[in-house]
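Explain this protein:
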Amino acid sequence: MTTADPSTGAPSTGAPTAGAVLRPHAEQQYADELTRLAEHDDRARPPGWRLSPWAVTTYLLGGELPDGSEITPKYVGPRRLMEVAVATLATDRALLLLGVPGTAKTWVSEHLAAAVSGDSTLLVQGTAGTAEESVRYGWNYARLLAEGPSERALVESPLMRAMRLGSVARIEELTRMPSDVQDALITILSEKTLPVPELNTEVQATKGFTVIATANDRDRGVNDLSSALRRRFNTVVLPLPESIEDEVGIVARRVDQIGGSLELPETPAGLEEIRRVVTVFRELRSGLTGDGRTKLKSPSGTLSTAEAISVITSGLALAAHFGDGVLRAADVAGGIVGAVVQDPVSDRVIWQEYLETVVHDRAEWRDFYRACREVS
């Protein structure tokens, strides 16, 4: 549908510009960094790769290029883990990123695909309702009825397209997919081919094709991988941030990026509030206060870094639109209570106990204590 541009009166197709996209893909958002890395990358590249394994790792972990320009870190964690992940993709093995929710599995998967093949959009989202067609292929039923099985009636899955192009295919939440759908991957991963018996043909993978899958074993309703499928993956376990400083840095960086993409009014993300949210999450999920003196009960939620980012982002929106523009305890209290109290019975008891035995006794947290009491 063609509409008029309200600012110029010129016809508009309705397609959003790059700057208007709510969440650009990694290869769009960091196109400049990927281009600069490619210009300075003189190392050997595996077939079909846009960058060398060294450059891919530098893109993920950040670093300085020979011209003095900086590559921003996308992942904060052990370098060896990323080197193992990248080295896996350089072989004929698929990569499985495993970890509890909020350990940046999806984030790492997207940026790996963007750096290796320049396209992170070949994605299958695993759910309980994911059908086998999402992994293999489907049919345009209007053409199928009119013409019978034909190339024109075939609808490629993201995996089939990745095989044709020699690109990275991504599968999110692999263990949420039904077991029979999971097993459709076995032939693709072992033989690097996808049979299409209706057309008496097959699609053979082009060099550069690989699969990155993510999974966690904390959510309910998980379908464990069969041993036959698990053997076809190299598994890299992504841990939670080791130190509070690392986690505070991750949250601050991501909140700044998200705030910019959402075009929130300029509001300073106070490190004090970020540190308090991260401290609460780390203490509750570990079951122990930071000084090691008090044991705590852990709530049912995961209280991950991703949830801390969400709490701070919501707090910034509150401070910008309904406050004085400064992030304060009252702006994050509602979000943090909502993140902790997932079960209205057991989690509420755990939260109240934490407030009264830990937060209440911290003199510098009195404003945070009052704000949480008001929303609790």
Notes: The longest helix spans residues 244-261. The chain has a mean pLDDT of 89. The chain is about 45% helix and 10% strand. The CA atoms of residues 49 and 116 lie 5 Å apart.
